[in-house]
Amino acid sequence: MNYIKLIFIGFLLTIPTSIFAADISVSSPGTVVSGETITLTIAVNNVTDLFSTAFYIQYDPAVISFVSAQKGTFLEQGGGTTTLLTSANNGVLIVGYSRQAVGGVSTGVNGSGNIMTLTFNALSNGTSNITFLNNSLCSSVGFVCTEIPASWSNTTVTVSESGAIADITAPSIPANLSATAISTSQINLSWSPSTDSTGVTGYRIYRNGAQLTTTTGTSYSNTGLSPLTLYIYTVSAYDEAGNDSSQSTSASATTQAQAQTQTITDGTAPIISSFSIPSTSTSLAVTVSSFTATDTQGVTGYKITETSSAPVSSDTGWSSTAPTTYVFTNAGSKNLYAWAKDSAGNISTGVQASVLITLPTTTPTQTTSNNNTPTPVTTQQNTIITNTNTAPAQSNTGTQTITTIPSNTTAQPTLMAGCSFGFAFSITTGKPCGSTTTTSMGGTTPASPTISSSASATATYLFSNERPIIYGMKNSNDVRELQKILQKEGLLGGASPVDGSFFLDTKNAVIKFQQKYGIFPAEGFVGPITKKKINELYGGTAITSTPAPTTTLSSFFFSRSLTIGSRGEDVQKLQQILNVDPSTKIAQTGAGSPGNETTYFGPATQNAVIRYQQKYGITPSIGFVGPLTRNKLNGN
């Protein structure tokens, strides 16, 4: 149902009255609902001798439509006849309103009042401005219009959908905008939130005068910027009705400068701050008391040599940690040189330290069959390994008997390199020592001395500090006796052979032995402390080894290389050998397991070959059965 909404709002003067004699205003209807009738009242204030008016009013015909104009009360004062004419076309309304002369006399009216009312229909959602374009107020003087100066106030009409009140109020302007450059390509913005009668929907962000983006929060990170560049930002707020606030006060920031990349060449070698060893030693294994080095970029390698020639960074033998022991091959006055390197390959200046190695002296005594006083044969600088200990399992004494040389001759042993009287194995080669010979002062060569043991004696073994036992040794009697002891300790499995070869299984067993008896460091190196402990435990005891499982098939010879994809009888024989040892077994069940060997060389066989190669020190351990692996499989 249509109804008339009459609202009259007088506008404050915006122009001084000393310039304008009258004020013209139009009422504001505020917000109306589509379909309502709108009434606008045009009023005058402080006018003198107003006789007629002519108004040219512009409006939006899509939002409102003109209906009619009605006379007001102001020009009707004093009686007489008045005329009101209207014309509306394309959003422009022309209204003329005039008094007529009475008795041939034209008179105007003075004061303030309503001149007329205008009626419109609200058509559709939107806002229409009511604007005075060209207006005239005429006095009664003369036959033509004598204009009365006046000021004019316009208004707007807002039409909303039925049942709703349109929001025409913009949010408050965002305050406290700040901009902070945090990198060469990013500036962070933040501001205080705006307020709005219906709620702020979002914010528009402007960069250098152009809208950049919108956001719903009160912060934003602008990325992808250029280094060392100034950027200026403003922010405005908007609500759901599309009302926008004015833009905020600007904030600016300059992105950071691009960092200059500089390649620094490391030309500074490490410096060895300390390197010391004992001045004397009774063992070929000499403890390194201290070895420290520093470098601007960090030390990456340490090395000890017996030569003063500087090594190169690509040499073998560099260690990532400083060595704690160095093993010489023979006694005497020795020099050691410590070196350090860095990641750039710079080598430090060598630092020298000296040691005098004197091995213990033991003079063996001869025991003659006629109980004569024994005479020394020679003086040795090494410990005699075979000994006259009493075998605990026998009732008789296992005494070593040496046949004496006649008194008119002097015995002069002739021995292998690294051998000495009483040595079963060379301290330099680890191989069995040869028999001795003697020469006569008179030029005759008497019979060689014979060494024998009584039938009731039990052979025993002592470890000497003169012979180092290290990783990689092969066919060594020291290693073989060590493996027997490790087996007896339960640290070296029966599947590992007592073959005199010092590889991974033996090293791991040594580490367990050292840990068991509190020998530090437990690194698998058999030095003086480890040997002393072994001699304490087993120096007078005969040790027998546990036979290792057979790992070769005497009836088969491997003649070709084998790898992934190989097929044949030799693959099946290979699987049978690998399955004998639990540590190299191909599979527990199914194809390839014991009793289910196949003629195909697959990934499971390859993995078992890798374990076999690692166990026996065959490198590279990659699962390829080449000449070295075939040699081991063939029992060599």
TrEMBL record:
UniProt superkingdom: Bacteria
GO process annotations (BP): polysaccharide catabolic process
Keyword Signal carried by entry: yes
Domain Fibronectin type-III: 173-258
Keywords assigned: Signal
InterPro entries: CBM2/CBM3_carb-bd_dom_sf, Cohesin_dom, FN3_dom, FN3_sf, Ig-like_fold, Peptidoglycan-bd-like, PGBD-like_sf, PGBDSf
Molecular function, one GO term: carbohydrate binding
PROSITE patterns in the record: FN3
Signal peptide: 1-21
UniProt entry tagged with the keyword Transmembrane helix: no
CDD domains given in the database record: FN3, Type_II_cohesin
Alphabetical list of SMART domains matching this protein: FN3
Pfam (any one): PG_binding_1
UniProt name for this protein: Fibronectin type-III domain-containing protein
